[in-house]
Amino acid sequence: MAKRYIEEVLATPIEKVLFNLGKGISAVQMELDRNSLATQIMIENTPELKGKGLEATWYQIPEVDFELKISMHIVEKKKGNIREKNIFISPMNASYKNSLNYEVAGSSVLRLRIVPVPPPFNYPEEEG
Questions:
Q1: Helix-, strand-, coil-residue percentages of the chain, each rounded to 5
Q2: For residue 1, what pLDDT is reported?
């Protein structure tokens, strides 16, 4: 029973993992931008600094490489005549390996690269 409970707690739908990864990267970039903007505003509002030609440093996450050793399994649900398959992943860590006697050599690797790209189209200019 405990073995099954641990597996269920650690197992997560793959789309949830990828969504949260993207959301986390976005949140980090927004905080970097907020900090740079706050620094620039502080410089512009401080007479001693404003006249020195100082500018805030802006940081960018140019790309993220992500690699995760995982155990994958597919759960199939049947609703009437419709079958729905979901991929669940569980991260490989010492707790998972020791609790479930899982052989890491049989794990899969999820590799993902996230890179910035230009917007897909130009937004229309506001009429004023």
A1: 40, 25, 30
A2: 43
